[in-house]
Write a structure and sequence with these properties.
Distance between the termini: 25 Å
Protein name: Phosphoribosylglycinamide formyltransferase
Number of domains: 1
Strand order of the largest sheet: 3-2-1-4-5-6-7
CATH superfamily: Formyl transferase, N-terminal domain
Radius of gyration: 16 Å
Catalytic activity: N(1)-(5-phospho-beta-D-ribosyl)glycinamide + (6R)-10-formyltetrahydrofolate = N(2)-formyl-N(1)-(5-phospho-beta-D-ribosyl)glycinamide + (6S)-5,6,7,8-tetrahydrofolate + H(+)
Organism: Anoxybacillus pushchinoensis
Pathway: Purine metabolism; IMP biosynthesis via de novo pathway; N(2)-formyl-N(1)-(5-phospho-D-ribosyl)glycinamide from N(1)-(5-phospho-D-ribosyl)glycinamide (10-formyl THF route): step 1/1
Number of strands: 7
Strand content: 15-25%
EC number: 2.1.2.2
Number of helices: 7
Shape: globular
CATH topology: Rossmann fold
Helix content: 40-55%
Length: about 200
Amino acid sequence: MKRIAIFASGSGTNFQAIVDAAKKGEIQADVALLVCDRPHAKVIERAIREHVPSFVFHPKQYETKECFEREILQQLRERGVDWIVLAGYMRLIGPTLLQAYRNKIVNIHPSLLPAFPGKDAIGQAYRYGVKVTGVTVHYVDEGMDTGPIIAQQALYIYDGEPLESIERRIHEIEHTLYPQVIQQLLTEKGSTSDEKTSNH
C-alpha cells in the first residue's frame, strides 16, 4: 500500500477529509506523516487524535529553506513516503523536495487556476465579482500554483451570495474532490509520472 505525507499549516479540514477517506478505504493508502510549519496549528491536534505521526518545525529556526527541507526529506524517507499531498500548506516547495519527489507532489487550490493564485483565493474571486469559481488539484512545481492541472470542479456563485456561503461550498467540493483525485493518482497504472503530467 502506498504511503502519503500530508503537509498543512492551518486547521486541517482537508487533512481530516483525506484521513477519513483512507479509513473508509476510499483512498487505498496509509497516511504516514503530517508535516506542519506552525507549531500551534489546529491540524496537529487532528493528527494526534488520528494517531498520525507529526513532524512540526519552526522555519525561522533554520538558516535556509534547504536546511528544513533536508530534515523533512529525512523524515519522509524514514517512513517510506511515496507521495506528498499539500493541504493548506502555506509555503512554496523548494528544490530539495521537488527533486526527490518529482511529479509526486500535489496541491489543492480554491479557485479555477490559473485564475486567483496565491493566498485568499476565495476572497479574491468574491471581490472580483466572478460568477463561476471552483477548485483545482494540480501537480506542484517551482511556482505559486503554476503546476500542471490534474482536475477541476466549478462552482456557480449565486447573485448576492455572501462570502461565508461561497467558502463553505468550496470546502465541501475540496473534501470530496481531493480524496477522489488522490486515489486516482495512486491507482493509475501503465504510465510513468512524466507521462501522467503531460496528459493533463
